[in-house]
């Protein structure tokens, strides 16, 4: 199971939108979009990030995080339209004091696992097939290695 991505966590808060390489998206089974409640521009950029995410991963679960609430607790009374507009769960978080951090990651992981188990997305099926091929290959390599090892340890006849 893969979750989007330390890089996304880092990049989403940036002031300028900078596209991420498609490979970052492809194996993600959930996305956590973070904005900084003290920097309006990071909230404004969410729409662009979300559009890019949906281009590559149309169905993965996504949650929105309002971070740094410790700096101004009153923001927790605000309603943030972006989350409502796309029906995404919104978490009020402080990475500094830990508020809601564990809950956020527990929920995101649960969503990701459930998505991975039930996904009907064509891209996921392709990736799963590739993963299976890799696993088969690894098993074959391991078997071949074991057989080589066995041959070496055979006593001389
Ligand atoms: N008060 C407060 N400060 C925080 C919180 N999370 C991160 N910071 C501070 O914000 C600054 C940037 O944190 P980073 O972990 O570097 O985050 P980043 O996403 O790379 O950077 P930004 O996009 O600038 O927020 C650091 O000085 C952190 O200490 C938080 O929840 N509350």
TrEMBL record:
GO terms for biological process: nucleocytoplasmic transport; protein transport. It catalyses: GTP + H2O = GDP + phosphate + H(+). It holds the Pfam family Ras. The keyword Hydrolase does not apply. GO terms for cellular component: endomembrane system; nucleus. Coiled coil: none annotated. PROSITE patterns: RAB. Belongs to the small GTPase superfamily. Rab family. Belongs to the small GTPase superfamily. Ran family. This is RAB, member of RAS oncogene family like 2B. It comes from Pipistrellus kuhlii (Kuhl's pipistrelle).
């Amino acid at each position: 199971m893969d979750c989007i991505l330390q890089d996304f966590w880092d990049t989403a808060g940036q002031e300028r939108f900078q596209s991420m390489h498609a490979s970052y998206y492809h194996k993600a089974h959930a996305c956590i979009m973070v904005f900084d409640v003290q920097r309006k521009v990071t909230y404004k950029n969410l729409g662009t990030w979300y559009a890019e995410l949906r281009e590559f991963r149309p169905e993965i679960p996504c949650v929105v995080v309002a971070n740094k609430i410790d700096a101004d607790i009153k923001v927790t009374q605000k309603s943030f339209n972006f989350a409502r507009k796309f029906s995404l769960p919104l978490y009020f978080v402080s990475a500094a004091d830990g508020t809601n951090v564990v809950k956020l990651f527990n929920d995101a992981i649960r969503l990701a696992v459930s998505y991975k188990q039930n996904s009907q997305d064509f891209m996921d099926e392709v990736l799963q097939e590739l993963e299976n091929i890799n696993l088969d290959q690894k098993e074959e390599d391991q078997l071949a290695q074991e057989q080589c090892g066995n041959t070496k340890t055979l006593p001389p006849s």
